[in-house]
Amino acid sequence: MSDTTLDAFPERSVAMVRAFSPVLERALLISGAIAAVIAILGMPLVADRVPDAVGPPLVGLIGAVVGVILGYLSVPARLRRAFEAYSWLGRTEMDRFQERTGGPVPTKPTDIELWLASTPATSATRMGRIEVLAFVGRYDDARAELDAVRAASNEELLIVGVTAHRQARAGSPA
Q: Which terminus of the chain has fewer CB atoms gathered within 10 Å of its CB, N or C?
């Protein structure tokens, strides 16, 4: 997400993305720069030593591998582990959302509004709607849908409790 897209959401909803972005952008820049330098300097070194069909792909592959490794290593280990955990949890949540609602998580403000307008609150979509409403800061709407939930499983009971807790911590009426 770009910073302008992030600005459309409440700060608490995008704080983790903002926290990781500078380090990840630096790692991406390092990876690309190293790959480019290896490609520029490597081609003259291999031009006379390997066939033309092998040289450019070989130099490109070496540059990409070295760039990715050094970019990866440029991220401090503690931050890298935190980002890996954050990404793993995020992927799990996105898969759960899609499994529950039948569609992908809307990520852009216009897509979110369109999804909310076109997706009625049903037993299959209600928890996803509550999460999306809370994410965009529409706490009263999320609370109204949350109050309508008749939890059918322990998972729904847990999600209802966690969502209510998040709303209470964010200062919205519980």
A: C
Residues in the chain: 174
Query: Is pLDDT above 60 for 167?
Result: yes
Instruction: Determine contact, residues 137/13, Cβ cutoff 8 Å.
Output: yes
pTM of the model: 0.66
Q: Measured between alpha carbons, how far is 77 from 80 in angstroms, rounded to an integer? A: 5
Tell me the CA distances in angstroms from 136 to 23, 44, 141, one per residue in order.
25, 53, 11
CA–CA distance, 61 with 76 (Å, rounded to integer)? 25
Residue spans of the domains in the chain: they are 3-75, 103-169
